[in-house]
Design brief:
- There is one protein chain.
- The chain has 362 residues and is of the alpha/beta class.
- The chain has two domains: 162 residues, ATPase, nucleotide binding domain (Nucleotidyltransferase, domain 5); 138 residues, ATPase, nucleotide binding domain (Nucleotidyltransferase, domain 5, 2-Layer Sandwich), CATH 3.30.420.40.
- The chain is built from twelve helices and 15 strands.
- β1 and β2 form a beta hairpin.
- The longest helix has 28 residues.
């Protein structure tokens, strides 16, 4: 058995949690590294550490780590500062293949064996080069609907080697679209929900059923495009444009018609793509299956806080749109005070979901 596969088994069969120890989630993307550390208290889970460290442009391209040295050194710095020795980590959605399968059998061993026989139908890579996992979504009439994810073995091994070099022991590894629902939706939730994660350069569109992703896609446009629109209109620096974007958003006022037009020319492109995909889903939704109609939309991500954005999207999506709560599965707010402001916390959905892996089942 080669070293890479041994490391994957170490990840797949993660050790049991130790409630006295903080659990950490580390989310790596093209824009930077985010961490969230949780600790069990008598009244429930608290977020005790968080951090976001930017990465230089080009360090991660197309979901793959290109500048290994920079990423390793950044991980060493942030983990050393916050005392992180073990963590759950994520694989980028851009390098993963989400698939659905309906199988017979009652155990994960049966499910995996059934999927493995048809793996080349689900993942466009040679089966020998694929690492995959499956999660049950719905059991009905003796069959189980699964949501699965496949990823190239080399991507898994690269991620593990980077964390090994940084001195961080990986407890579990999973696709990023599986982590966010764990943070945003309470355990046992059976809704079919659309989660929109608006990052700096991308917007992720994920439909989840029973807290498990069943459809996902990524748009190559994000909040930075809005920042650039503000910069171009006002002729200001990037930092100044971010402030204007946060303060004015896309809310109409008597004196901001031209500004609003500049903003909407960009955000409308995001809305149109989301509407197109949601309408496709809703038109084929069937009650009582894993393809139930979407009932509401949750917004997260570092650029989800643009004023007026929920209302703007809701007018077109025709389902309620609201900002997510990444602390849904942590202790009640009466018992503790999060160390990060609510608006800023929306960027940590994936990291918190990773840290919750030992505490809140999928």
């Amino acid at each position: 058995m080669n070293g890479g596969f041994t490391r994957f088994l170490r990840v797949e069969f993660a050790p049991p949690r130790f409630l006295s120890m903080p659990t950490a989630g580390i989310d790596i993307s093209a824009s930077g590294i985010k961490i969230a550390c949780l600790r069990e208290r008598s009244h429930g889970l608290e977020m005790v550490h968080f951090a976001e460290v930017p990465l230089p442009e080009g360090a991660i391209v197309g979901g793959e780590i290109v500048d290994i040295k920079t990423v390793v050194e950044t991980l060493k710095t942030v983990s050393g500062k916050h005392g992180i020795h073990t963590a759950n980590i994520t694989l980028p959605e851009a390098r993963s293949y989400l698939f659905e399968a309906q199988v017979e059998g009652t155990s994960s061993t049966d499910w995996r064996a059934s999927v493995e026989q048809h793996l080349d139908e689900y993942v466009p890579l040679p089966p020998a080069d694929v690492v995959f996992d499956v999660v049950p979504v719905l059991e009905k009439d003796g069959k189980t609907d699964l949501s699965g994810v496949g990823v190239a073995r080399r991507v898994v091994e690269m991620s593990l080697s980077v964390f090994d070099e940084a001195g961080i022991r990986v407890r579990a590894i999973e696709g990023e679209i599986f982590a966010a629902p764990r943070a945003l939706l309470p355990h046992g939730d059976t809704e079919t929900v659309l989660i929109i994660d608006i990052g700096k350069t991308t917007t992720k569109f994920v439909i989840v059923a029973h807290r498990i992703p069943v459809f996902a896609t990524t748009l190559d446009i994000g909040g930075h495009a809005l920042t650039l629109a503000v910069q171009k209109y006002f002729g200001v620096t990037e930092d100044e444009a971010k402030k204007v974007k946060a303060e004015q958003g896309i809310v109409a006022r008597e004196d901001n018609d031209e500004y609003l037009a500049a903003m909407l020319s960009t955000v409308s492109a995001i809305r149109e793509e989301i509407v197109k995909r949601l309408e496709y889903w809703q038109s084929r939704a069937v009650v009582g299956t894993v393809h139930e109609p979407v009932t509401r939309t949750l917004l997260v991500g570092g650029n989800a806080t643009v004023r007026g954005l929920p209302e703007y999207l809701e007018s077109a999506l025709k389902v309620p749109v609201e900002l997510g709560d990444v602390f849904t599965n942590l202790a009640k707010r009466d018992d503790w005070l999060p160390p990060v402001e609510y608006m800023e916390s929306l960027a940590y959905a994936t990291a918190i979901g990773l840290a919750l892996r030992e505490h809140v089942p999928a």
